[in-house]
Structures are given as C-alpha cells and as structure tokens.
UniProtKB/TrEMBL annotation:
Lineage: Bacteria, Candidatus Buchananiibacteriota
Keyword Thylakoid carried by entry: no
Protein name in UniProt: Prepilin-type N-terminal cleavage/methylation domain-containing protein
NCBIfam families found in the cross-reference section: IV_pilin_GFxxxE
Superkingdom of source: Bacteria
SUPFAM superfamilies noted in UniProt: Pili subunits
Species per Swiss-Prot/TrEMBL record: Candidatus Buchananbacteria bacterium CG10_big_fil_rev_8_21_14_0_10_42_9
Pfam family, one: N_methyl
Residue ranges of the TM segments: 12-34
Transmembrane helix in keyword set: yes
Keywords attached to this entry: Membrane, Transmembrane, Transmembrane helix
Length: 241
C-alpha cells in the first residue's frame, strides 16, 4: 500500500475577496478620474463658449452705440445681425444651448462724476452714459443651470453739449452757431422775450384767450347735485343758506 503525499497550493476565499476589493477600489478611482476629467473638460468648454457669447453681446451693443446713441433703449434685449449690422431684437436671443439677455439702463453720477445708485443723495442722471450687462445662461450635461454676466458702460463721448437760455433770435438755424436761435417750432411757443420761453397765446389778448363758457341748469339730467346743499332757481344754481 502506497501513500502519496505533498503540499498543495491555492487561494483562500478571504484572499479572493480581498483581491476583488482592491481591484474595485482601483477601478473606481480610475473611473472617477476619467469621469472627473470628462466633466471638467466639458465644463471648461461650456464656460469658454458662454463667455464668448456674452462678450459678443457687449461688442454688439457697442456697435449699435456707434450707429446712434439713442438706439440704446433701456430694458432687456436680444441681438440680431440679420440685416448685416447689429440691432436690438426681442428680449433675448439664443445660440444652441446658450441664451443671452443684453440689459441697458440709465447711469447716475454724483458731484464728483462717480457712478452711484439712482436713489443716492445728489444722484443726477447722466444723459451721455448707459449701463450695459450681457448675461448668458445654459444647462450643463447634468442639467445644472449656469450663468455668466459681463458688465460695461457705454458713453456718447463725442456729443457736444451746451446751455441755451435765449431763443429770441427765432427759428431757421439748421446748424447751431447763434446762441439766440433755434432750428424750428410749431408756432405754439412765444420766444419774443430774451431768456424766456412760454406757450403762445391763442387769442389777441384781453385776458380771455381761452374764451368764456356759460350754461344753465334747465335740464336736470345734465348734472347731479346734493339737493340739501344746492337748489336750482330760474336756471341758476345757488347754495342753500
């Protein structure tokens, strides 16, 4: 009778579980790194495209300002270039997944010229400046809403301003040079007195240019009154004493 002997080598169940656990941790780490890089790359790409779209909004509004400063109307706008030049259009515009809103508003300044809030003490409207905001919103690949906003100030720096208090020279001045004249009027103003402008009289004088109007109280349906305070006698209304 013979007996065969020797050592047998193998893996225990604990070793297998431990190996699988280590492999799982490594796989999860690698997957997390890949997923993180993937998400970061997409987020960076989205942010770059949104920033470029917002910057285009600033540049588009500046192009409109160069056409005419009074085209910068206060409010929320979209932009279009369908006619070959930038124009305000609607309340927003889109480019793929990105929505842009260009907001235009007034600017107020204090006595030093610094920009302040409208309600601040000493705040004065600056008619030659406009506040501009270009905001872009979009949803990420995970459905999270994102936004970016760029701000700017647009000015009508080439405008010529002056103060005129005398229009006695009359109309007919298409290009301003005479400090007492103006371009045109509709005939309803009186500018004959230097340093003064007022509505023209509609009559020839006498103090009753608007005319007088009289009417009686014969027809009761034409008026309402409190009979305890007012009485009508011979087409005349009088207080009850």
């Amino acid at each position: 009778m013979t007996k065969e002997g020797g050592e047998h080598y193998g893996f225990s169940l604990i070793e297998v579980i431990l190996a699988l656990g280590i492999f799982g941790l490594l796989a999860a780490s690698i997957l997390g790194m890949v997923s993180g890089n993937y998400t970061t790359n997409f987020a960076s790409r989205d942010l770059m495209q949104a920033t470029a779209f917002a910057q285009e909004g600033i540049e588009g509004a500046a192009a409109i300002r160069r056409q005419a400063f009074n085209l910068l109307v206060n409010g929320d706008h979209g932009l279009t270039k369908t006619n070959g030049y930038w124009e305000l259009s609607g309340t927003s515009d889109t480019n793929g997944a990105y929505t842009r809103i260009v907001t235009i508003g007034d600017i107020y300044r204090d006595g030093t010229g610094a920009i302040v809030n409208q309600g601040d003490l000493g705040a004065t409207l600056d008619p030659t400046s406009k506040y501009l905001s270009s905001q872009v919103t979009w949803d990420s690949i995970f459905g999270i809403n994102n936004q970016i906003s760029l701000d700017s100030v647009l000015t009508n720096w080439q405008s010529a301003d002056w103060t005129q208090t005398d229009w006695s020279g009359g109309s007919g001045q298409a290009i301003w040079s005479n400090p007492t004249q103006f371009f045109a009027d509709d005939g309803n103003i009186d500018f004959s007195t230097a340093g003064e402008i007022k509505l023209a009289s509609s009559g020839s004088g006498g103090g009753n240019e608007c005319g007088l109007k009289s009417w009686g109280f014969d027809v009761a349906d034409n008026y309402n009154f409190n009979a305890s305070d007012i009485e009508v006698v011979s087409s005349n209304a009088q207080l009850i004493g």
